[in-house]
Write a structure and sequence with these properties.
The protein is mainly alpha-helical. The protein has a domain at about 30-105. The chain contains six helices and no strands. The model has no long low-confidence stretch (mean pLDDT about 85).
C-alpha cells in the first residue's frame, strides 16, 4: 500500500522528504525505554486527546517539561543561595513596600 502522503507528493518533492528522513535519523538521538501498561495507556490517552501527536511526541514533550522544570529549580536555588551569601541591605530594599503598593493600586481591577 502506498503511503497517502507520498501519493499526494509530486516526484520532485519525494527526494526532499527522503533526505529529511535520513538527516533526521542521522542527527537525532534515539532513546529506548520500557514502561508499564498503565503508563502506556495514559500516553495513548494523551495522543487520543490531541495533547501529543504520537507516543514519541508525548515522551519528547514530557522530557522538555522535566528538563525545563529542573533548570528553573537549579536557577532558583542559585539565586536564593546568592542572597544568603550576600543579603540585601536595608538601603537596597528601602521603599519597596511603598512602591509595590503603588503598583498594585494602579491596576484597574
Amino acid at each position: 500500500m502506498i503511503d497517502p502522503i507520498l501519493n499526494a507528493m509530486s516526484c520532485e518533492e519525494i527526494p526532499n522528504l527522503l533526505w529529511d528522513a535520513k538527516r533526521y535519523a542521522k542527527y537525532m538521538a534515539q532513546l529506548v525505554t520500557r514502561i508499564d501498561e498503565e503508563l502506556a495507556k495514559d500516553v495513548d490517552a494523551l495522543v487520543s486527546d490531541g495533547v501529543a501527536a504520537s507516543r514519541s511526541d508525548a515522551v519528547r514533550l514530557g522530557l522538555v517539561q522535566l528538563i525545563d522544570r529542573h533548570q528553573r529549580e537549579v536557577i532558583g536555588l542559585r539565586i536564593t543561595d546568592a542572597y544568603r551569601r550576600v543579603p540585601q541591605e536595608d538601603v537596597e530594599t528601602a521603599g519597596l513596600d511603598k512602591a509595590t503598593r503603588a503598583l498594585v493600586e494602579e491596576e484597574p481591577w
